[in-house]
Amino acid sequence: MKDIEKLKLYASKNEVPIINDEGCTFLLSLIKEKQLYRILEIGSAIGYTASLFAKISPEVKVTTVELDLDRYVIAKQNFFDMNLLSQISAFNEDALTFNTNLQFDLIFIDASKAQYIKFFERFKKNLSPEGIIVSDNLFFHGLVKNPALTKNYSTIKLIRKIKKYHAFLKLNPEFNTEILPIGDGISISKKNPHHKTLHFEEHTRGHFTATKDSEVFGEISILRKKECLYVNDLKVLKSNENSTTLKTLLFFAAQKTKEQGFHSLYVCENCGGVSVEDFKDMGFEKSNANIEKLNIQNAKGQLLEFKV
Fold it and tell me: pTM above 0.85?
């Protein structure tokens, strides 16, 4: 198809998911304003967004990856029809095994929602120092905010995974992320210039210190109670205006939770003198579990849960 509008109409008639108009307008404006001309797109579909990106300027170079063979073939034909093959490199591969050494100003994630965390982690190394990672469909047609609107079990499971991605973005200390109420929900993640890569050392069972160049930045104690992990104590010894150390300690705890096969990490709202609002801002939510059930001694305040 040589016409973008015809491509858009084809997507609508054949139920091919593409970015909605509001989100598209925002993203194209962002690319122009920031001159994000080296672009990696995860999820080509039929080539709608990649074509729009390339049409911004002859300087734009797009690498786009699509798993579905039929959609990939249609996308390649569309790129040919619109004379964009010199600007767009398309690959029919699984993004989770796709390798590239290129650096990108923009990484646009718009593929399988269940794999968003894996996509983010896999390609963050390909982000230029001032680049951004943009993820689409984070509201999932309003169902993330109102999951009761569906009774479909597969959809409910997908909503849970999108919520985990929300929490991952908020808690990740390497990036500063905004989730914007634009289109179907768009996140913008930028590298956190204040982030410190800390080394964790376990001293006694479940008690870790976080150090960098022999300087201790924080301590965290993680207990296993019944079928969950619980942050028993948390001390931020050195921090900054972006709470990098706090986010790093909690992100580490979340990773340990995942490694041990648990789905939730629990933190007492008064843990380490950190307020409940601090935890909520980083993706924690109040749990239905109660302190007595988990048998945690001397715990004060309601538990907050982080799904990992």
Answer: yes
